[in-house]
Amino acid sequence: MSILLQFHKSILEEIHDPATSDLLVLARGLGLRRIICTLMQIYDSKQSLVLLLNASPEEETAIGDELGIMGCRRPGLRIVGYEMGKRDRQDLYKNGGLISVTSRILIVDMLQSDIPTELITGIIVLHAEKVTALSLEAFIVRLYREKNKAGFLKAFSDQPEHITSGMSPLKNIMKELQLRRVHIYPRFHEDVKNTLETRKADVIELYQRLTEPMEAIHHAIVQCMTVTLSELKRSNKTLELDDLNVESAYFRSFDAVVRRQLDPVWHKVGPRTKQLVGDLATLRRLLTYLLSYDALAFHAYLETLVASNTTTATGAAKQHQSPWMLTDAANVIFSTAKRRCYILTAPKPTISVPERQVIDVDDEDAWAALDEVHGITASKSRDNGNEKEKQKPWVPDNMSPVLEELPKWDLLADVLQEIEEELMRQEAVSTRPPTRGSNTVLVMTSSPRSSTLVSEFLGEMDGTAPKGSRGRSMMERKLRKYLYWKGENARQKQPRHQQSPHFSAPQPQPSSQPEGEISEALKRKDKTRQERSANRRRVRGGAPLVVAPSKPAVVNPKLESRDDADEIAAFLASQPSDLLVSSDADALLLETLLLSEAEMDFDTHYGLLAPSQTVVVRAYTDDTDDQILAELQPRFIVMFEPNLDFVRRIEVYRNSNPGMGVRVYFMVYQLCCEEHKYLAGLRREKESFEKLIKERGSMLLPIFEDKHAGKSDAVIKTISTRLAGGRKELSTVASQVIVDMREFRSTLPSLLHASGLLVVPATLTVGDYILTPDICVERKSIPDLVASFNSGRLYTQCELMSVHYKQPVLLIEFEENKAFSLETVAESAKSYAKPTNKYPAKKSTGPTDSDRAPPSVQSKLVLLTLHFPRVRIIWSSSPYGTADIFNDLKANAFEPDPNRAIAIGAEEDPEAGAGINAAAEELLRCLPGVTAKNVKYVMNKVGSVRELCKLDRKGVQGILGVEPGNACYDFMHRGDRKKGVI
User: Shortest CA distance to 851 belongs to which of 828, 868, 831, 822?
Assistant: First the structure.
């Protein structure tokens, strides 16, 4: 169990009172989960109902485990999931306790009165920075406060950077959550500062310089980012992009900031601007990958970037290429990244190679002997000689592997060696082991991929090798996999794009193939195929060979790297396929281990390792790292990459264990983006807290009005004036909208409720929103509209609405602050260009690009309106506009009946499916035109599959609709049509 520090107790004293509602903003790494679990432990009782909102599945599991450790086991934290039924949820709510529920399930239960809202003791909201006027949490709070004024609401956040964008962001969050008190605890708070500076860990800062090739690549990437940013600002002068710089581009939120700035005019910007926005994200990833990937993985990633930038998925040339790849800095990136892996030289004559190798080895041995006589160590020369002797058979002759290692690997090996020596010294000095803490070494990295790479290096490290080559065996294995990948790519491309005659000349396959009739047949087949491909190449390849030499001057850096890659791939394609696969060696090793397993001593080779022999490598996560520190209790921690949150976790961990000495090795690359990113993150958090404190000092607290105060006005609005003679009649039914359960993923139900409409959730078979007995609305966002057209689902939905409702409506809804257009101006301008008579029109030789292109969304909408004339299409620029449109459509209209809306398209009797034949239902579902939505309706109309087959075409169409009925009827009577019966 974690110990509460002094500032933790101060925070709990301020927020634990159930009579108050509070918002707590805490700096990351200071133990927010510990505070939340302690608060939930205080509220744990069968007489209270406390709900936990906005928790991810991982957070739910971690909070439940920690509550169990703290003693809240009966029943502890219960989790409400989608698999739990309605009655089970009702029973769970009535029993009380601590319950974690998703916002979507809770909002439906509150609207259907499945949960006693007036009996809720309180709600705990995590990630309060995500709460907006459109979020479900704001909807939940409105419903909660309508029926429950006494319950508390506690909101928590550890992301101050997300609460500083926009006008009065802190005030907006407090307004939506209906809070009046906020507590801000940064790292420089007086209580936090005094507590954490009582005991400090022994921190050793290790600044590692990049290698020269890495420095060159890093400088070139930063230069490309600067050029891309300046080009983006130059092409969009009307936008406020002055605060965007390279320093802010180090963070992931930079892409969202740029996109948010461009979203309102996204339909006006050209493809070049969109390409620049994508390039910024790519360059930011390159900076991260340079410091965390090994040289071969980084080079392979660059090759995939080049391939994706030059060709499309269909193999055609890409029109809009990344501008940064055409710069000189990009040439530095590609060429230097390749030199970190290997160097290609001119191929040497095959006859003189053995003689030169013998002379070189003799010379090296002679020089080594002479150095030994004079007492001079010649390790470097011997190493070079060994490398030449140990030339791998799978390495091309003209390739010299460099295999540069990351500088931090050697630094990590030295640190682990120092820790081992320190442990041995402590054991020699003290007779008894330390009472607190373990000798397990904890190594923290930035990502799971970095953790895997560090684990591989430590597992295969050669401690006797000089610095820079301790991971040589691992890098050679990765080079082997890289060459195998290149060879496979070449083999896949060879049937479609034949290699040049220069590369296809060496063919060592026949020597490795067994002699026999089959191999001779394969030889003849391959010879015939090569002759045909050579003839095809002579016929079709004559013209491009003349034009090709003029292109390398335009795209020089990319073509150079691709030429080298093609040369390697061509060599590997000519080699046997099993030369680069190491699975045979692994299989032999596994077989040897299995054969000798009976002779092994189990206790010697298997079992638990001692803590002093264990190195745990993990990636940074969230508050789970606090639990890892508490469980392992390491005295030696290596931060392989800097992380501001984990630094504070170590401070809390050190002060929570007073009698333990903790040593931390803080490793960072000097004068690069890693150091700049760490310092910039520290500065951003400090500035964010200062803005929050300043806003809290001058914030106007909102006054929350009682929604029931204006109830008389609502009654007046429900007076129907549609009766004859101008006579008025008081309507006792409130203005309501029936909403499908699946629509609560969107923000529209929350806005409808905020506009004064009563939202009734129901499981609808036809439509998404029922406004009146005659108006049915199918809402489509832009991505959903495109997907519905492609799958054909929209056709069926419009057909069902046309059958069951007088006024079917298709609502196309755009997002707030985004382009109100289906396509960009640049794309639409092509089709509206005015023809000129300056040149005669060329004769059409075939289908044009516009003919081959798939039909646009507009043309599909036109076809939809032609097929269903009664379907009305409504365009809405945002969910706010949709709420106003719904209110206008409902003016002076009757209210819909929920029971009738649920019954439309479904079976009449809810118990109708109790005694059905499951096999017959499965057969019915397989018929064309029968879907999951209308299968119950079909089963209600016909008693068996035989009865459906006996119906005529009109009868089937009356049940399924025109088009689905035709498809189903033709499918069932296909055999009769062939026999000529029909």
Answer: 831
Look up residue 952 and give its two tokens: 């005529």
Question: Contact at 8 Å (CB) between 111 and 761?
Answer: yes
- Span 538-585, pLDDT tens digits: 333 333 333 333 333 334 444 555 556 566 666 665 665 555 554 445
What's the order of all strands across the beta sheet hosting 769-770?
758-762, 736-740, 769-770, 775-781, 807-813, 872-876
Query: How confident is the model over 108-126, as pLDDT tens digits?
Result: 999 999 999 999 999 999 9
- Compute the half-sphere exposure of residue 298: CA atoms within 13 Å on the CB side of its CA: 33
Task: Output the pLDDT for position 442.
Answer: 95
Among 249-263, 269-283, 408-422, the range scoring the smallest mean pLDDT is 249-263
* Beta strands at 152-157 and 122-125: parallel, antiparallel or unpaired: parallel
Please give the mean pLDDT across all residues of the chain: 79
Q: Is the dihedral of CA 680, 683, 689, 691 positive or negative?
A: negative
What pLDDT, on the 0 to 100 scale, is given for residue 192? 95
- Do residues 206 and 163 touch, judged by C-beta distance below 8 A? no
Alpha-carbon dihedral sign for residues 365, 366, 367, 368: positive
**Residue among 485, 462, 463, 574 at smallest CA distance from 296:** 485
Cα of first residue to Cα of last residue in the chain, in angstroms, is 79
HEC profile of 13-69? HHHCCCCCCEEEEECCCCCHHHHHHHHHHHHCCCCCEEEEECCCHHHHHHHHHHHHH
Nearby residues of 52 by Cβ (< 8 Å), 6 or more positions away: 40, 60, 63, 77, 98, 99, 100, 101, 124, 126
| Greatest mean pLDDT among 148-152, 381-385, 844-848 | 148-152
Paired residues of 666 in beta bridges: 205, 639
Tell me how far apart the alpha carbons of residues 648 and 137 are, in angstroms, rounded to a whole number.
30
Residue bearing tokens 């610095």: 467
